[in-house]
Amino acid sequence: MRRDKSQANARWAATTVAFACALSVMVLTLLPAAALATPVTQDIESLQAQAKQARAEVARLDHAAAIAVEKYNVARSELDDLSVRLVEARRDLARAQLQLDVARSVLGERMADIYKNGGLSVLDVVMGARDFTEIDTQIDYFQQISQADEDAVTGIEVLTESVGKLADQVETDRAAALVREMDLREKRADVEDQLAQRQALLADLSAQVKALIERQARLDAAASQRLADAAGVDIGSINGSAAQIALVKETMKYLGIPYVWAGASPSGGFDCSGLVLYVYAKFGVSFPHGATMQAHMGTPVPFGSMEPGDLVFFGDSTFYHHVGIYIGNGLFIEAPHTGDVVKVSQLAGRGSTLACRYPIRLP
Length: 363
Fold this sequence. Notes:
Layout: H1 2-116, H2 122-128, H3 132-204, H4 207-234, H5 242-252, E1 264-265, E2 269-270, H6 272-281, H7 291-296, E3 299-300, E4 311-316, E5 319-328, E6 331-334, E7 343-346, E8 354-357
Antiparallel strand pairs: 1-2, 3-8, 4-5, 4-8, 5-6, 6-7
């Protein structure tokens, strides 16, 4: 009996040990998964937060670069205008100097003739005339010559003053051009600095954060493509004139062209105002390369009354940093920023502050 009890106790102990071992194995097996569940979730959330922060910083740099690009465009346009004025001033100066030389030559010849002939007087005319009719004619001729001499002298004085003013203007324009050129270099440096910061930021991101950002970029591109497809399908139903519809269709030809700052051609890429400049030139509107200058050339229209082909601007009346072409149904085409392409976007929620219309006409 005692032996049977001992055997039972041994079996119970063995069973207990086996159960404890199995339980330990189970706990050890499950613990890593339970322990890792929270960190994995935290890692994903952390990466998503980093990606969101990186996208916000890229957006900030893109906005800063857009401002710098438009300031560069304005400075370059003003420099181009100044260069034209400088050429015109120099041309006018050369013309005035030529006229001055001619006037001096004519006056010199008259004075030489008078000197050679010993001068003329009314008495000379009377004594040399054969009859009274000839006296009247001679005196009239004498007066005309005297008046011509006086006019020549006056003309020389006026031309001399004009040449002096033109010379001063040329020097003033030249000095202003030098200042603008320095300003232009600074604006270009600002743009390059913003783009360099953007590139450095993207380069420093981890591979996982880059993957998340690239995924979001693909989603954004797909959304833009859906908008473009919808605009393409609905373009015939958009209410607008033949010129407006033609302008929208022309603009849509350039979807997918890369954004290039200061770009204004399909081959070289577009920035926002460069796209507008290029497209509108085909419809009889000549624009400078700069959103602010383009805004000031248009007729403002209420946002609720916009029509296809109107321009939408972002900024304020002193400086607009972005512009796009409205195509109807709440959509517009824009060249957004470095790293993106010409695309269709929703206007709602973008913060546009001005819409303008222009006298476009069919090519």
